[in-house]
Amino acid sequence: MDTQTAAAAGVRKVALMIRGVKVAMLTTTAPDGTLHSRPMATQEAEFDGALWFFTKSGSGKVDEILHDSEVNVSYAAPEDHRYVSVSGKAALVRDRDKIEELWSPVYRPWFAQGLDDPDVALLRVDVRKVAYWDMLAGGMVTMPTEEEADR
Amino acid sequence: MDTQTAAAAGVRKVALMIRGVKVAMLTTTAPDGTLHSRPMATQEAEFDGALWFFTKSGSGKVDEILHDSEVNVSYAAPEDHRYVSVSGKAALVRDRDKIEELWSPVYRPWFAQGLDDPDVALLRVDVRKVAYWDMLAGGMVTMPTEEEADR
Ligand SMILES: Cc1cc2nc3c(=O)[nH]c(=O)nc-3n(C[C@H](O)[C@H](O)[C@H](O)COP(=O)(O)O)c2cc1C
């Protein structure tokens, strides 16, 4: 497999692993060094290389990310023994078109005013490294594989 | 409520919130700054102020913790909309009595030799800060509360 084919296969595999997990835990580092996590509604659209979340632009997690952009997003589907760890860098995105493209009523509980909320924004997590555990894999599988990462 | 009573109530509340969640995600910071998480079997014993996990002393997570002890442990029970974030400091514990006290056959899949595995050790996470979300609380509840933390 060449690098591009491997990368595409990696994206498909991650999409499969996180499919159907409606809530992920997003972990950030606070300025004092402590690690915080919180539940975040996942998007319905299929994973294509970046993860997207809706957030309020004035929230604690945004402050933390502007201070230190390294994050982890974890997915747990205990009923089928599926766990995924995504390491990446998060960025605040206020692009109106993207916000409208990704908006769904599932985010309503946290954004009562919906798209009219002046504080509504997106977090984009650019994926650097993924590890997953499932019944078939048994142990941990990491992507990119050591081989791919060395190229 | 005085500080001690509040702390005891906090411990009971956390015990209640994480009860029955068999797998938690443990997030650590790697030397290159990336955040990694992995599923960890939780202990059956009731939470009494510290979290304990079995680990191999030579594992990647132990290296990461020896380098940076700040960790997050997250618990997700999606079926009843319960999520918990525990921020704390992790330490490697090789105390034989404690290992024997906490050992249970549920850890067997990761320690085939059980207590005879020379590499078996514990991680103790001393809890600093907890946040939880549940249906009753609606939003996020943090402990210690700002008031308690200021004392
Ligand atoms: C099931 C669930 C899903 C959530 N989804 C989101 C979300 O998509 N976006 C969001 O900003 N907050 C969401 N929240 C609330 C966050 O967990 C958190 O309380 C809030 O964003 C403030 O976090 P912060 O102070 O760390 O920024 C959700 C909470 C729960 C319980």
Brief overview:
Chains A, B: InterPro entries: Split_barrel_FMN-bd, Stress-Dev_Protein, YdaG_split_barrel_FMN-bd. Chain A has 151 residues and is an alpha+beta fold. Chain A contains 4 helices and 7 strands, in the order H-E-E-E-H-E-E-H-E-E-H.
Folded structure, characterized:
- The structure is a homodimer of 151-residue chains.
- With 151 residues, chain A is α+β, with helices and mostly antiparallel strands.
- The first copy, chain A, has one domain (3-146): Pnp Oxidase, Chain A, CATH 2.30.110.10.
- Chain A has four helices and seven strands; from the N terminus they run H-E-E-E-H-E-E-H-E-E-H.
- Chain A has helices at residues 3-18, 60-67, 96-102, 146-150, and strands at 23-29, 35-41, 50-56, 70-77, 82-93, 120-133, 140-143.
- In chain A, strands 1, 2, 3, 4, 5, 6 and 7 form a seven-stranded antiparallel beta sheet that branches.
- In chain A, a hairpin with a 4-residue loop joins strand 4 and strand 5.
- The longest helix of chain A is centred in the first third of the chain and has 16 residues, at 3-18.
- Chain A is globular and about 45 Å long.
- The mean pLDDT of chain A is 89.
- Chains A and B meet through strand 1, strand 2, strand 4, strand 5 and strand 6 of A and strand 1, strand 2, strand 4, strand 5 and strand 6 of B.
How do the strands and helices of this protein lay out in sequence?
The structure is a homodimer of 151-residue chains.
Chain A: H1 3-18, E1 23-29, E2 35-41, E3 50-56, H2 60-67, E4 70-77, E5 82-93, H3 96-102, E6 120-133, E7 140-143, H4 146-150
Antiparallel strand pairs in A: 1-2, 1-4, 3-6, 4-5, 5-6, 6-7
Bound molecules: flavin mononucleotide.
Pfam families (chains A, B): Pyrid_ox_like
Protein name (chains A, B): General stress protein FMN-binding split barrel domain-containing protein
Domain General stress protein FMN-binding split barrel (chains A, B): 11-141
